[in-house]
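Reviewer 2 asked us to include a model.

Predict the structure of this chain.
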Amino acid sequence: MPGVPPLPPGPPLPPPAAFAYGRHTWKEVGHLLLDLPVALLGFVYAVLVVTLGFGLSVTVVGLPLLAAGLMGARQIGRVERARARALLGVRVEEPSPLRAGRAQDGFFPWLWSTLKDPVAWRAVLYSVVRLPWGVLTFALTLVSLLVLWPVLGYVARGMANADRAMVRGLLFPSDELERRIAELESDRGVVVDTAAADLRRIERDLHDGAQARLVALAMGLGLAKEKLLEDPEAAALMVGEAHGEVKLALQELRDLARGIHPAVLTDRGLDAALSAIASRCTVPVKVNAELSERPAEAIEGIAYFTVSELLQNVSKHSRARTAEVEVWRSGARLLIQVRDDGRGGARLDGGTGMSGLAERLGAVDGLFTVDSPPGVGTTVTAELPWRARSAR
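Predicted model (structure tokens):
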């Protein structure tokens, strides 16, 4: 109405109605209500897998059936970890993939690896113990929802914490140990393959080199023996040729022995052995090996052959004018660095043996890095664990 002053503003309106608990509590409630159906399915599956697998183990299908069931148990564990991450906020990683042997190893390595898989057996145990716990959590959560509303948050949080502990105890991967086992299994394969390749190379070098030369030498000496009385001059000429063959055979055997383990490395250590390698390189090489003591024989040998192959690459591929080798100890590591001022562009997958060196060093907990910008040169750094030399 005209002349009537407006009414003063009233108190602010209350916020819209909302649930009394936050979303984290409702996620925990949802997880606890799902415990019973999920636990029931997991329990039935685990019991069927174990009873059928062991019950039929006297037949040809029992153990393969158990192995297949364990692979399924791994998937149950994966689902439960995902549920715990989504609803309980548990930071749990996936375990390492099952390493069931190489494909060429066949069926039985796969069977044995699967039957002794700790991740799968922990998932089976988790499925078995979850059933009584699932019944309890479902009942208490439902009663709290319908009757004990004021204490629902406390009940849900307490039981959810128990769920978190169970997931961490049975489904959390022992990551470091499992991954370390997987790495060691892979490294063992690399070492075996490398040793087999080295043995084949030595056999081939002996067969095609020194052995063939010694066979020819024996035949030549046999002919010289026959001609010794009939034609002494021809026999003397044949003996002279045999003498030359003996020298060549001895040189080939020395080269082969140097490729297996050089005497200079055994007698005088890395500094002298690397200097000997450098003297045979087509590029001038400066060697600096600062070691107050010698590492273990195996580590010393790996370091020697690593530098040897790298300097061969410098000679064959780098087009460098100079190169440098440095070896030093840093704490519990032996470090090797080979540098050149060549054309660069070297890669681990470049076909110059770099990938093989990286695998060999990785097999003994070593590291191998290549820095090779095109046109700038190449720097290769290798690290090996320092192991004390055994007393003799």
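Residues 9 and 239 are 127 Å apart (CA to CA). Residues 13-19 have pLDDT under 50 and may be disordered. We have added this to the supplementary material.
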